[in-house]
Design goal:
single chain; 131 residues; alpha+beta; 3 helices; elongated
Length: 131
């Protein structure tokens, strides 16, 4: 949400710079807008989808449509931990949630959480059944 507000501010400053003929403000707003777009693209590249198949997980990058298959035999362990909820002066904001880390044979880790994947429970159950 912050990025969208920042982008709007940069565009507004850019168009106002023509009216006031302040080209330094216009140039600065274009540079900041370009940086913001770069961060949008970088964030979009990290968005993935995981599909549970019979022999493993299929991980699809939504930006590039790159597909990676991770067989269940390549998974060593799954570690689940509870993330504590948030508190403020007014009381508890969130109750917390579970987050799982899949340990792979090559030493890599794949982090999955309910915030990232709608089928989080299906993924965890499938991995626990197959390992």
């Amino acid at each position: 949400m912050f990025y969208i507000i920042f982008d709007f501010f940069c565009l507004s400053s850019f168009f106002n710079s023509f009216r006031t003929e302040d080209f330094i403000v216009g140039l600065g707003s274009i540079i900041f807008l370009a940086l913001s777009i770069f961060f949008h693209i970088d964030k979009l590249r990290s968005v993935t989808e995981i599909i549970v198949l019979e022999k493993g997980l299929q991980k699809i990058s939504l930006a590039s449509q790159k597909t990676e298959f991770i067989p269940f035999s390549f998974m060593v362990n799954i570690r689940t931990e509870r993330i504590q909820g948030s508190y403020s002066d007014a009381g508890q904001i969130t109750t917390g949630y579970f987050e799982s880390t899949i340990l792979l044979e090559n030493g890599e880790e794949l982090l999955i959480s309910p915030d990232q994947y709608d089928n989080y429970k299906e993924i965890v159950v499938a991995i626990r059944d197959k390992i």
